Amino acid sequence: MTEKLRSHGRKAIRQTFTPRELMTPTPELAGVWRAQILTLFPDAFPGVLGASLTGKALQEGLWQMDTIDLRPFGETKHRNVDDTPAGGGAGMVLRADVLGKALDTAAESARGNWPVVYLSPRGKPMDQAMARRFSQCDGITLLCGRFEGVDERVIEEYNIEEVSLGDFILTGGEIAAQALIDATVRLIPRVLGNYESTEDESFSNGLLEHPQYTKPATWKGRVIPEVLLSGHHAKISTWRQAMAERLTKTRRPDLWRAWCAVHNRDPNEDREL
């Protein structure tokens, strides 16, 4: 028996002349933040995004994810999506004509503020501010590269924003896409349940997060700092702020200098606990 797709909320109906084999089977949900992923491996999704709070929010229709398989857009009867690099060199490059058709199909259902992002090691580093910006968009289209990357003309033609998770290389953009979506979706109202919890996280205010503790009060001779058990909220807040500053200064001097510049603080200052 064929499993029926489950939809949430209202469906946004639209007419299209795109062949059925090139369309995602997922109905659109009106007014919901949506991620479109262009990939050669659609079965890799939702992956970890289908678990925990992001998975629950996905089932409840608080956000939506559509995968667009690049293979059906391929050329010739073999559905070729790549070719050798112009000028020679190792590896293969995703073709401009193939990606262009896929991006045009994705654009048919993109509405409003909708960036197109290519997960690339040469892109701008992903940070919390970027995740917050993406969460405030109507949706996002993510292009997952493979092999040696994509034809540069595609990036230029579609004004694609390049984003990197860090100074390292992955075999493809799918893992990076899931990380970007996770960081973004959790900032959408109602996804976490307690939205205020995002305000105290690392990077939210420019600092790393303070240490966290829970029961038991004593474990292997290590005790929870006494101030956290005092019930004195002002002292607890002061301690947490000081610890966040100290951790940031020690582990991320770049963040610490930037934070001090904004708050007119001496970077060499160390707050008393």
Characterise this structure.
The structure is a single chain. With 273 residues, the chain is α/β, with parallel strands linked by helices. The protein folds into 2 domains: 20-185, SPOUT methyltransferase, trefoil knot domain (Alpha/beta knot, 3-Layer(aba) Sandwich), CATH 3.40.1280.10; 201-263, Trp Operon Repressor, Chain A (Orthogonal Bundle). The chain has helices spanning 52-59, 96-107, 128-135, 152-157, 174-185, 233-251, 253-263, and strands spanning 33-39, 63-69, 82-83, 93-94, 116-125, 139-143, 161-164, 218-219, 222-223. Strands 2-1-6-5-7 form a 5-stranded parallel β-sheet, sandwiched between helices. Helix 6 (233-251) packs across helix 7 (253-263). The longest helix has 19 residues, at 233-251. The termini are far apart. Residues 1-25 have low confidence and may be disordered.
What's the arrangement of secondary structure elements?
Layout: E1 33-39, H1 52-59, E2 63-69, E3 82-83, E4 93-94, H2 96-107, E5 116-125, H3 128-135, E6 139-143, H4 152-157, E7 161-164, H5 174-185, E8 218-219, E9 222-223, H6 233-251, H7 253-263
Parallel strand pairs: 1-2, 1-6, 5-6, 5-7
Antiparallel strand pairs: 3-4, 8-9
Helix pairs in contact: 3-5, 6-7
How many whole angstroms does the radius of gyration measure? 23 Å
The total of helices stands at 7
Chain-averaged pLDDT: 88
Going across the major beta sheet, what is the strand order?
Answer: 2-1-6-5-7
List the helices and strands in order: EHEEEHEHEHEHEEHH
Share of helix, binned: 25-40%
For the largest beta-sheet, the strand count, sense and barrel status come to: 5 strands, parallel
What is the third-level CATH name, the topology of the largest domain?
Answer: Alpha/beta knot
Assembly type: single chain
What's the CATH H-level homologous superfamily of the largest domain?
Answer: SPOUT methyltransferase, trefoil knot domain
